[in-house]
Design a protein that fits this description.
Blueprint lengths: L4 E7 L6 H6 L5 E3 L5 E3 L11 H10 L8 E7 L5
Antiparallel strand pairs: 1-4, 2-3
Length: about 80
């Protein structure tokens, strides 16, 4: 993984997910640092070092509701 990149677990249909991209989503929901869901714009979104780490987390946590998650590769915004 390149510097300035990380993975997030986002609810399917959120910005950055396959479904969200098709639908033109401009915001979304992700797993937060505390294990609860939060806005993708929140500074508390949980970052994972690898896709495997995100998968491992998803496999061992219990998230209320019936949300389905997608692992999304994220990049820090370029500074101009």
């Amino acid at each position: 993984m390149q510097p300035g990149q990380w993975y997030e677990l986002r609810v399917k249909g959120s910005i950055g997910t396959r479904e969200g991209t098709v639908k033109g989503a401009s915001d979304g929901v992700a797993i937060g640092d505390d294990g609860h869901v939060c806005s993708t714009a929140s500074p508390h979104v949980k970052h994972f070092e690898s896709e495997q780490a995100a998968n491992d987390y998803l496999g061992r946590c219990t998230i209320p509701g019936k949300s389905q998650f997608e692992i999304v590769l994220c990049r820090a915004a370029a500074v101009h």
